[in-house]
Write a structure and sequence with these properties.
376 residues; alpha+beta; Butyryl-CoA Dehydrogenase, subunit A, domain 2; Butyryl-CoA Dehydrogenase, subunit A, domain 3; 4 domains; 7-stranded mixed β-sheet; 7 strands; 50% helix; disordered N terminus
């Protein structure tokens, strides 16, 4: 790979961190420890947290897909799975390669484009036609092979600038196929990883809040500054409680037998997204332009976090939460897995509205069933 001249220092610092990285895999009983570590790393430096989270996710993904041990301590992995219509990265079978596949084309939005040594990438194995959808698969690729090039000038961002998330070109580069797109997307670990990203957002928000907390602790702090600090502390406390509860949710049902993991993950992501945006807003309103103009590290954190949380799909994700609850309730209702039946339902079916109400409560973590034997 063609590297930028300034990459050696950053690569060395990251390599040192990655060699000592030991995080519990999600869904194995230590999920909150994993997310706490990611949050702390991101509070220290948002870009570092983002890059290490991707490497840790690559370990979890390869383990889920039966390739445990593929990610080694002396490597740095990215996960490059964005699938916009263009540019296009394609994969084709090649009998002349031991891996059996080669990659050709361009992958956009590759965090750590000139820093990573390896990556998990999605690539199109068959383009869409009028008669059939595109087919996409997941591949592991060594980025230090001939034919890999990080494209300069394709990441002109201010926020997350140091994440080096530009385009990468592949010219018939050997790669190992790990599975189809569904193998990557439809495993519970996909959503475990999605909440891990939200833990990073939480860490970034805690770092952005630091100057507000410091100012509010001064003896001469104004009531307005203290009010904003109290509100931010309450938001962060609620966000962390949500992550703790979700970690327990994941560890109790790692294989998603309840079928609500996607809705739960999107609930966490949308809430932490809005919390982080609110922290940025309140810190700015409380402290004014001073820290943004005179404290370069704080200004960069604000810019970085603002870009990072836009990995959500905002209201589209929130709409998906409700759609998932309804769809799951319909499946459960058709299978008759709810207690009781409702008007108009035949034998062996359940009232979908009753099931949906129960699913909402499971998602929220609250049982709204009326207590028996008590006064109203």
């Amino acid at each position: 790979m063609t590297a930028h001249p300034t990459d050696s220092t950053a690569r060395g610092e990251l390599a040192t961190r990655l060699r000592t990285l030991t995080l519990p895999l999600p869904g194995r009983g230590g999920t909150i420890r994993r997310w706490e570590h990611l949050a702390r790393l991101t509070a220290e430096d948002i870009v570092t947290g983002r890059l290490i989270e991707a490497h840790a996710d690559a370990i979890a993904i390869t383990t889920d897909l039966g390739a445990s041990g593929l990610v080694t301590a002396d490597s740095h992995w990215g996960v490059w799975a964005a699938e916009p219509p263009r540019p296009l990265l394609t994969a084709s079978e090649s009998s002349g390669q031991p891996s059996g596949w080669v990659l050709h084309g361009t992958k956009p939005w590759c965090s750590g484009a000139s820093l990573c040594t390896h990556a998990l990438v999605t690539a199109t194995t068959r383009e869409r036609t009028p008669d059939s959808p595109a087919e996409v698969a997941l591949f592991a690729v060594d980025l230090w092979q001939t034919g890999v090039r990080a494209v300069p000038g394709t990441w002109p961002a201010v926020g997350m600038a140091a994440s080096d998330s530009g385009w990468v070109e592949f010219d018939d580069v050997p790669a190992r196929r790990l599975g189809g797109h569904a193998d990557y997307l439809e495993r519970p670990g996909f959503w475990h990883g999605g909440v891990g990203v939200a833990a990073c957002w939480f860490g970034g928000a805690r770092a952005v809040a630091a100057p507000l907390f410091e100012r509010a602790a001064r003896a001469n702090a104004s009531p307005l500054v203290r009010a904003h600090a109290g509100a931010v502390a309450a938001e962060l406390a609620a966000g962390w409680s949500l992550l703790e509860h979700t970690a327990a949710f994941v560890d109790a049902d790692p294989d998603d037998e309840r079928g609500l993991l996607m809705a739960r993950a999107l609930t966490v992501r949308t809430r932490i997204d809005r919390m982080a945006a609110g922290v940025i807003d309140r810190v700015g309103r409380a402290l004014g332009a001073g820290p943004l103009c005179s404290d370069g590290e704080h200004a960069q954190r604000v810019a970085d976090l603002g870009v990072y949380i836009r990995q959500t799909h905002a209201e589209a994700d929130e709409a998906t939460i409700a759609a998932e609850v309804r769809a799951h309730a319909e499946r459960a209702g058709a299978a008759g897995t709810s207690t009781g039946t409702g008007p108009g339902n035949g034998p062996g079916t359940a009232d979908v509205d009753v099931v949906a109400a129960a699913h909402w409560d499971t998602l929220i973590g609250f049982d709204s069933t009326p207590l028996r034997g008590t006064d109203d």
